[in-house]
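Figure 6 in text form: structure in, sequence out.
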């Protein structure tokens, strides 16, 4: 295994672990903790996901650089591309809408009473990203 493949695999699985821990464990559990109100939970969520997305961007650069410097199997490159596109969609298209939604909820306006499906879009993109990262990590280390 080349050094580039090892770096790519390590970064991919680190990225995968971070997404799994934050999105599928921390995010839903924080609202069940005693004393965590909706405003506090939304504030924590904004802070945590902003930090997660920044870490993801750094890891994406590391992975893409390692793949460019190495000779990855095509499936690793395609799956990494899928994960990166999902991240970009989240940061550029979905998170701004989630911020608007949380602002409305915190302000208590009429928008707060309506159900939003934006979180489901974000979650769907998280699932796409998880699959992409898993496949890319396995392919990078196997190839």
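Output sequence:
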């Amino acid at each position: 295994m080349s050094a580039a493949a090892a770096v790519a695999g390590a970064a991919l699985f680190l990225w995968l672990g971070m997404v799994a821990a934050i999105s599928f464990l921390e995010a839903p559990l924080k609202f069940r903790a005693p004393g965590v109100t909706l405003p506090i939970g939304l504030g924590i969520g904004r802070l945590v996901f902003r930090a997660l997305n920044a870490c993801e961007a750094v890891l994406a650069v590391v992975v893409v650089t390692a793949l460019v410097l190495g000779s990855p199997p095509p499936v690793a490159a395609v799956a990494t591309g899928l994960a990166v596109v999902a991240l970009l969609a989240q940061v550029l298209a979905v998170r701004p809408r989630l911020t608007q939604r949380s602002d409305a909820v915190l302000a208590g306006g009429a928008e707060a009473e309506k159900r939003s499906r934006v979180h489901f879009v974000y979650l769907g993109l998280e699932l796409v990203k998880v699959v992409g990262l898993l496949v890319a990590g396995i392919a990078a280390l196997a190839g």
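Caption detail: The chain has a mean pLDDT of 91.
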